[in-house]
Write a structure and sequence with these properties.
It is built from ten helices and twelve strands. By secondary structure, the chain is of the alpha/beta class. The structure holds magnesium ion. Residues 8-10, 52, 54-55 line the site of magnesium ion.
Amino acid sequence: MAKILVIDDSRLISHVAKTILTKRGHEVILAQDGLAGMQAAKSECPDLILLDLIMPVMDGYQVCQNLKDEDSTKEIPVIMLTSKAEPADKVKGLELGALDYVVKPFDEGELIARVNIQLRLKQLYKALQEKNRQLRELANRDGLTGLYNHRYFHEQLSKDFLRARRYHESLSCILLDIDYFKKFNDTYGHQTGDIVLSTLGQVIRDSIRDSDFAARYGGEEFALVLYHADRPTAVNVAERLRQMVEHCEVRDKDHVLHVTISLGVATFPHEQISNPKQIVECADKALYKAKENGRNRVEYFR
Ligand SMILES: [Mg+2]
């Protein structure tokens, strides 16, 4: 069942169309002229529009043009209703963006068949768009942790960094690394290593704000971007995360494991940071220092 808008100045034609379509379970909205039709298209968001060509004031061509010019209505499929059989009229309508036409007086079977084709195509198109959206999302994610991947991290960081620089806002980057990660893999096997990584991914996801984003940066390395976060704020976030991980029990089948992380923080604005690459490099230097100073700690780039 679909919602179908019929725009036609003939009451007889509108009535016949409504009877045929209602019988098939569709909801039918009628508009008697182009202006009312445009308004109904915007307010009712129909699945399909049947559009008469010859109407006073605003004809079907004009309505079709207006529908296609308007963001909220341009995706709605349009079938023209025409009593004219001249090919040139049909071509003009199709060129304006109508998908099909039905010649009046219409045959019930033909009208239904053409309506069904357009409704089916619309469904397929919607499903395709959704699939594409899912694929785009998947392509940006790391399969194990569900966090964003390295490529997407750089893409997003570049955008955020440029925005921060332009509007003189602060931006922080945290790089973190699991301490002695190799020993989990070596002692308990790679499956346990994967559990450590995915658990950490979950802890990170649970701890960040909606405006922040987190990525798996490399093997056991993760990266966070905190928008509107100055150094004290970012160091707080890092310290809180460090504690959460320290107190989190990671369980595989047979063991309870304790994991710690080291974190490096870099914040823009900073005299040594003028592009997205540099903020990552500075966070990496701070991370290196955290490792050097004994791990399970936070350091920031001074
Ligand atoms: Mg007419």
